[in-house]
Amino acid sequence: MDVAKNYCSFETEHLGTTENYKLALHILSCINTPLFIYGAWCIIFKTPAKMVSLKNVLLWSHFFSALLDLSLSVFVVPYVLLPTFSMYALGF
């Protein structure tokens, strides 16, 4: 009886396969995208008068944060291999 086969099966874990991992990140990005749009709407239309000078900075910061999040969760999809601290991109 091989103990490693019984206890180290990565295929049965929730995010053990790369396809499940990609699917989870794509679902999260579908949830995050409307929240990013709502956040931009709040910055554009609901910024108080005292913060008008910071509106552009907030909007650019929000835009690049959303762009980074979407690029990592949709376009790059990094798959990290922790014992060796290595990773590879799964792509779109």
UniProtKB/TrEMBL annotation:
Record's keyword annotation contains Transmembrane: yes
Top-level division of the source organism's lineage: Eukaryota
Pfam family, one: 7TM_GPCR_Srh
The keyword Transmembrane helix appears for this protein: yes
UniProt keyword terms in alphabetical order: Membrane, Transmembrane, Transmembrane helix
TM regions (residue ranges): 23-45, 57-82
Protein name: G-protein coupled receptors family 1 profile domain-containing protein
Species, as recorded: Caenorhabditis nigoni
